[in-house]
């Protein structure tokens, strides 16, 4: 669940923070949130997902956790990484792709 949190006591700046469940790994919850955003169209195919630093700031998690999230999403084909350019949302699978070999 996301909620607004005041950055500090001296300014009126707020940021979104995620309230993590204690019974699930943090990286799994962050990966689920990014998948939801991709499914909702917030992150479009071939468009970049937020950088490591942006995800660290938004979710308040360690860099290693962010890297695990991106690695997991990359392994499942949700995102792809282009060296020195960033991580991008993969194209959704085509509707006519049945997974069967061609010609059968």
TrEMBL record:
<dbReference type="Pfam" id="PF00392">
    <property type="entry name" value="GntR"/>
</dbReference>
<dbReference type="InterPro" id="IPR036388">
    <property type="entry name" value="WH-like_DNA-bd_sf"/>
</dbReference>
<keyword id="KW-0238">DNA-binding</keyword>
<keyword id="KW-0805">Transcription regulation</keyword>
<dbReference type="InterPro" id="IPR050679">
    <property type="entry name" value="Bact_HTH_transcr_reg"/>
</dbReference>
<dbReference type="InterPro" id="IPR000524">
    <property type="entry name" value="Tscrpt_reg_HTH_GntR"/>
</dbReference>
<protein>
    <recommendedName>
        <fullName>HTH gntR-type domain-containing protein</fullName>
    </recommendedName>
</protein>
<dbReference type="GO" id="GO:0003700">
    <property type="term" value="F:DNA-binding transcription factor activity"/>
</dbReference>
<dbReference type="GO" id="GO:0003677">
    <property type="term" value="F:DNA binding"/>
</dbReference>
<feature type="domain" description="HTH gntR-type">
    <location>
        <begin position="24"/>
        <end position="92"/>
    </location>
</feature>
<keyword id="KW-0804">Transcription</keyword>
<dbReference type="GO" id="GO:0045892">
    <property type="term" value="P:negative regulation of DNA-templated transcription"/>
</dbReference>
<dbReference type="InterPro" id="IPR036390">
    <property type="entry name" value="WH_DNA-bd_sf"/>
</dbReference>
């Amino acid at each position: 669940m996301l909620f607004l949190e005041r950055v500090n006591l001296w300014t009126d700046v707020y940021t979104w923070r995620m309230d993590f469940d204690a019974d699930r790994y943090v990286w799994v919850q962050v990966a689920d949130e990014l998948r939801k955003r991709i499914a909702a169209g917030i992150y479009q195919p071939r468009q970049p997902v937020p950088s490591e630093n942006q995800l660290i700031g938004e979710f308040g998690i360690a860099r290693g956790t962010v890297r695990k999230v991106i690695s997991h999403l990359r392994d499942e084909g949700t995102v792809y990484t282009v060296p020195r350019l960033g991580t991008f949302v993969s194209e959704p699978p085509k509707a006519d792709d049945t997974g069967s070999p061609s010609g059968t």
